[in-house]
Amino acid sequence: MTNQSTINKLIEMHMTPMADAFRNQLTDPKMKELPFEDRFGMIVDIKYDTRKSNRLNKLIRDAGFEQSDASVADIDYGHGRKLNKDLIRRMCACEYITEFRNIFLTGATGSGKTYLACALGMEACKHYYTVRYIRLPDMLLDLLPPEITETFRMPSKNIQSLPC
């Protein structure tokens, strides 16, 4: 089997990062000095990292965050905000998810509830949990029975695709 046919087969099997890594190893003279196991391990590591990265990006995209750049590291713990840094740090570990607990954020308009929710959601995505960002008014409208609204309304995609 030639190297080019191996690369073509890797691409056909949707393993393009492995094909790229193999191609790079073929062109790098320093790689010939390494044993086969090390070179193969490097190729597998590249594919593994690419899959994990793609999965994380998909989780973040599918979550529908209003502020997809939110980060727990950027939270302002200023004196007037009354945020419990230890509690937020514990929530970043996502233990509340494994304990089947929910988080409710309340506060005045402009106090940073959306940012905090998106930041915590991003942390959950980084732990590879499926997250869905839904605003309360949208969720309440979706949960209203048709008798109250006097019309049949299809639930939004946010509620409709949530796993039970």
Brief description of this entry?
The radius of gyration is 23 Å and the shape is elongated. The protein has helices at 3-12, 16-27, 36-63, 85-92, 95-98, 113-126, 136-143, 146-149, 157-160.
Please describe what this structure looks like.
With 164 residues, this protein is mainly alpha-helical. The chain has 2 domains: 3-63, no CATH class; 72-160, no CATH class. Helices cover 56% and strands 0% of the residues. It is built from 9 helices and no strands. Helix 1 runs antiparallel to helix 2. The longest helix is centred in the first third of the chain and has 28 residues, at 36-63. The N and C termini lie far apart (48 Å). The mean pLDDT is 87.
Distance between the termini: 48 Å
The H-and-E topology, N to C, reads as: HHHHHHHHH
| Helix residue percentage | 55-70%
Class by alpha and beta content: mainly alpha
* Proportion of beta-strand residues: under 5%
Number of H- or I-type helical stretches: 9
Computed CA radius of gyration, to the nearest angstrom: 23 Å
Total DSSP E strands: 0
Number of domains: 2
Mean pLDDT reading: 87
Which blocks of ≥5 consecutive residues have pLDDT under 50? none
Shape: elongated
Largest sheet: none
